[in-house]
Amino acid sequence: MANLQTVDDREETEAARAYLSKEGDGLKKLIHKSIQAREFAYCPYNKFCVTVDDREETEAARAYLSKEGGGLKKLIHKSTQAREFAYCPYSKFRVGAAVLAHDGTIFTGCNVENACYNLGICAERNAISKAVSEGYQSFRAIAISSDLHEQFISPCGGCRQFMREFGDSWDVYLTKPDGSYEEMTVGELLPVSFGPEDLTKKKVHAIQEF
């Protein structure tokens, strides 16, 4: 079976180059087309999730991640334990995650694959979904582990957006099997992001001509 060819390595046509040239108005037309397409959006819901990263952290969560205590090591260890349960017969790529809720409760998850590939779920989403199903929506940190030795594990784009749903200021710990880690916030992991609060912002419903 012939491999599908990506389109970014195909030769650009003169028409496409001209369309987006700075001298022409093709880019404006392209943007205008996206605005026209917006008019067909199906979004009947008017209730939105509220970001929770501005809620006050509890003492339990703060203490858990304090440098003086061993909570961070425990959180990372929980993620490595979860990795052992990964169901990944197709990729052989094991991932574990441990998410710390605002009150110090930890929820773990692993990646679970499926013969219908797109039905698989990543460890990060698994852990967060488990927490949400137990009534938690405010998180302080998440630790992610894999079998990669040469580099820190990095979440896929879908998981980054999934984490962003619950705020952009909570911490992410990307780890290696030796226990070393790289720390960043969800906002740093997914900059210039789209979140629930964007759905509440003022919108322009009329098509504007450029």
UniProtKB/TrEMBL annotation:
The active site is at E124 (proton donor). One of its GO terms (biological process) is nucleobase-containing small molecule metabolic process. The keyword S-adenosyl-L-methionine does not apply. Keywords: Hydrolase, Metal-binding, Zinc. Substrate binds at N111, V112, E113, N114, A115, C116, Y117. Its EC number is 3.5.4.5. SUPFAM superfamilies: Cytidine deaminase-like. One of its GO terms (molecular function) is cytidine deaminase activity. InterPro entries: APOBEC/CMP_deaminase_Zn-bd (IPR016192), CMP_dCMP_dom (IPR002125), Cyt/Deoxycyt_deaminase (IPR050202), Cyt_deam_tetra (IPR006262), Cytidine_deaminase-like (IPR016193). Belongs to the cytidine and deoxycytidylate deaminase family. This is cytidine deaminase.
